[in-house]
Amino acid sequence: MIKVTFNTDMCKGCALCVGACPKGCLAIAADKLNGKGYSPAFIKYQDKCIGCAFCATMCPDCIITVEK
Questions:
Q1: pTM assigned to the model
Q2: Spatial separation of the C-alpha atoms in residues 68 and 19, rounded to whole Å
Q3: H or E element: which one contains 19?
């Protein structure tokens, strides 16, 4: 089982990870702000994730962890 986790407190909401996901599993939270005032990214469809880790590679702040 693949598990993707985000350190949402550090996320800037840049959405680079969202664009990098080939399966469209990620999204930006429209109704939530983190401590820095940004809308963080999150995994919307965990079951569709293939574990490619493109999202983690694209993240400039290294806040995404992909576990297989």
A1: 0.92
A2: 21
A3: helix 16-20
Residue 49: name the closest of 20, 28, 29 by CA: 20
- Taking the C-alpha atoms of residue 35 and residue 38, their distance in angstroms, rounded to an integer, is 8
For the chain, the 3-state helix, strand and coil shares in percent, each to the nearest 5, are 20, 20, 60
Examine the pLDDT at 17 and tell me if it is beyond 90: yes
Q: Residue 64 pLDDT more than 90?
A: yes
Per-residue pLDDT band for 1 (boundaries 50, 70, 90) equals: confident
43, containing H or E segment: strand 41-43
Half-sphere exposure of 15 (CA within 13 A, CB side): 7
Q: What is the dihedral of CA 6, 21, 40, 28, to 10 degrees?
A: -140
The C-alpha atoms of residue 50 and residue 28 are separated, in whole angstroms, by 19
